[in-house]
Design a protein that fits this description.
- 45% of the residues lie in helices and 10% in strands.
- The chain is built from nine helices and six strands.
- It has helices spanning 24-37, 55-66, 72-90, 98-107, 120-129, 153-162, 176-184, 200-205, 213-224; strands spanning 11-14, 111-115, 138-140, 169-173, 188-191, 208-209.
Length: 227
Amino acid sequence: MGAGRPGKTEALVFDMDGLLFDSERVVQRTWNMAGEELGAGQVGEQIVHTLGMNLKSRTEFFRRVYGPDFPMDIFSEKTRKYYRQIEEAEGVPLKPGVREILQYGKQNGYKMAVATSSRREHSTYMLKKGGIYTFFDEFMFGDMVENAKPDPEIYLKACRMLGTAPERSMALEDSPNGIRSATAAGMRAVMVPDLVQPDGELEKIAFRICKDLREVIEILEEQRAYP
């Protein structure tokens, strides 16, 4: 794993899908449903290649894979409809340790932000529906940046909004592209894997790899123990 950088963490910047919410598998289901309906087959199997991408970069990816005429607008409309149906029928639960780390962050004075590749409308709905929106000081959504993860833009802007230096900020991510993005921004990038497990490259560049967000609290406690 990546070597620890000196100094304590001042800010926590969270990815959303697959980290705060157990939503990646729901998204995968909706992509398969929409793909079958459009005659493109099991499109959801492509999700592991698109984690961390925003709508612009996903559109470019789908048109490379399925051809330049892939109807992304129709596909997106159908996946949003299916997502809401599943969310209303089954719910999309928080991942283990979410409430604990957010409460810990507030109680101990950490600045906190969301940096997600998902759109503002969807993200705001999910964060409010999940009852965690008010924990965060700032938000960076996928439709607020030009370049998607693994580009560092979203994390650099999140740190700027929080008023913290990247090297004194911790990014919490589940995806390889997210870890690459945060590392390129100069942050402490902690991976909590979801659909994709870390390979050798990620083990080298990640600050730490944790099984859930409760382990991240242990890291922050370790840092607080030293002057």
